[in-house]
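ARCHIVE CARD
Drawer: 12
Card no.: 0347
Subject: one protein chain, sequence and derived structure
Cross-reference: see card 0346
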Amino acid sequence: MNLPNKLTVLRIILIPIFMLVLLLPLDWGSVIWAGTMIPNTSLVGAIIFAVASITDYADGQIARKQKLVTNFGKFADPLADKMLVMTAFIILVQMGKVPAWVAAIIVCRELAVTGLRLIVVENNGEVMAAAMPGKIKTMTQMFSIIFLFLNDAFFAAINIPLGEILLYICLFFTVYSGIDYFYNSRHIFSDSFGK
């Protein structure tokens, strides 16, 4: 178990902590930032999510730089990202900050690509690594989630709903990268539709 894989496992462990902080009926008060009131539970949740997101960036950088890329890492890293992001979006739907249809598209895409990865492994014996559109999708998802939990407080003074803007950018890249994965793996389904 190398360092990048330990960071991936840490990200998975942070998910239930993130859920407990946001979903338990705790009242930790609020803070006001740039004229926007942020419940402390949302602030702590955003911090936990940000720390988990940083581990995603760090484990990838370390794995590539030190040549510690493993099949476990190629499998578990995107899985940990999906678990973290889908959990956050479902909580944001419950909080009324994300439309349910947006979360549904994101969840369906994540499940479809995970299924595709399993088929690719079964056929090729190799785990499909994340492509650039998928990396952009993950980055925009993570930033939109953080800003949505913080009620866009950092940008309230100039009246820019950055969380919502990033949400729809990440929705675009979610759909685009999903289509890209399936297009680039179309040979897997050639026996079903003819060559």
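Annotation on reverse: Residues 40-65 form the longest helix (26 residues). The radius of gyration is 18 Å.
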